[in-house]
Amino acid sequence: MFRRGWFLPIAAALGFTFLYAPIVSLVIFSFNENRLVTVWSGFSFKWYGELFRDPQMLNAAWLSLQIAALSASIALVLGTLAAVALVRFRRFRGRTLFSGMVSAPLVMPDVITGLALLLLFVAMESFIGWPRGRGMLTIVIAHSTFCMAYVCVVVQSRLSDFDRSLEEAAMDLGASPVRTFFDITLPIIAPALVSGWLLGFTLSLDDLVIASFVSGPGSSTLPMVIFSKVKLGVSPDVNALATIIIGIVATGVLIATIIQLRTKPKKARA
Amino acid sequence: MAKKPQQLAVDTRPWRDTANHKPFVRIKNVTKKFGDVSAVNDVSLDIYRSELFCLLGGSGSGKSTLLRMLAGFETPTSGTIEIDGQDMTNVAPYNRPVNMMFQSYALFPHMSVEQNIAYGLKRDHLPKGEIADRVAELLSLVKLQDYGRRRPHQLSGGQRQRVALARALAKRPKLLLLDEPLGALDKKLREETQFELVKIQESLGVTFIVVTHDQEEAMTLATRIGVMNQGEIAMIGEPTDIYEFPNSRFVANFIGSANMVEGVVTEDEPGHVRIRSAELGCDIYVGHGVDCAPDQLLWWAIRPEKMSLSREKPEALHDANVTSGVVEEIAYLGDISLYQVALESGKRIRVSQTNSVRGNPDAITWEEKVYITWGDSSGSVLTV
What we know:
A: mainly alpha, MetI-like fold, disordered C terminus
């Protein structure tokens, strides 16, 4: 119906504009020379230089990257285990409940997750004395918790269309179950693991609400720092920082996509 | 392609002489239950060395479950499985001298053809050189010498099938299990591959157990066939036995096509039996003794090609084995024509005739009244 018309191109253009116009304007204004964010007065790398002289920003960025990498990795392991359990143990008692509970954090409001975790950490500290105080450790634990749900969903979908006879074939050829997992299962679900990890990484990097609840003194993540700065008025170095982050994330996604395309078996011909 | 008897050892078929031959695979009273459902029910089966045994059955007949128990992917609920004199019932799949070729081929997508074939050899920690030699040997066995470095997705269906076979043969298993080995190939390729499979099996002397739902495949490949129905073995026999001498109505109907009529025994002599069939509209004279009693209700099955059609009434020996009807349908298949004849009772009988005269203008045609006749040992008397 719309095959040759003007509707589809325009719809696509509008959609993409809607999605990317803010980002593009942010990138453009990060090269603005003017101190006022909204007034263009010439091209400059000034704010990038400024940014790298701001220790608060740099520390927060480094902390955020560490937290993101750590929690994505923890979430990857836990999420994969949960996914394997959900897909492989057919029909154990309470399977539906378990599978619903795993994905519940996906729809849980961040405020509630954050509050719940904070209460848990406080209670744990008073009962078992761990984790002592709040800081990077508690943020990592909190982020792992909700990233795990995402990893689990991604890996689950990959595992459910995994041909089990591949594993049986490996065992039939003399590989023990552990060997089979590392030789066959892991390489085949690797793309899902990579995207799960990247998803966890970006979600953690992005999170403001949960981190605000569970962080402690001296452990402000990047979003927290940006947010508190913006409250006092937008400064152009935030634009510069955001541009760098966009660059990193875009590169990561690009690499992940290339890996996925390379390892994905092309559709069989015959 | 049916195997010539002399290709097997000196005296032909070990299963015909069970006193002097030890079975290679011994399945004893094996039952497998999934919950309350028994997929395999008290199956006992002996398979001899170098046999090409086909398990034939429809879906849900338990044939695949039986194969999976032989491979070790399922454990029998009760009963034992012995391979080459050793109890394998509870041995893990990776410790069995058995390899399997999967229906989906299950080629590892992230490995090349060579790596796929070498996988089992590497698990045995063979030296590198030996592995390379074996892989080359197997690739030439399945005629894929130039494809070693390709990935499975770069191969055609037939090539993948051959890689799967080579991989399953790599460890020189005593027993090879094949799950619908030709199922995914198109008809033409399937026919060619059947020949190759039999050739490879004969040259290596490995015992093959093949699961299939395709009776034609079973007939062409097998030394013996085990027909399975609802988790039980309905009949075990050579292809000719199964086709010509079915032991039950299920087997007669399942293998090939058969006309089946009900009848009552009227004469029961050691040398012959007479059956009165209202459906057929005539008596059936069977030229050999049958284990039955007078007035017993039983069934008589006959294959379409065992009967002949004529316009003139043929001479009826023993006043039996001739009936008449009207041609209702004709299916011209080239080599043969299949006639469906409606008898007076309303019963429809299918008769096939060889088209030995080219474009025969005098062939029997629609709506003609015809006589059907058959020899006194052409049909099978079935009591179950």
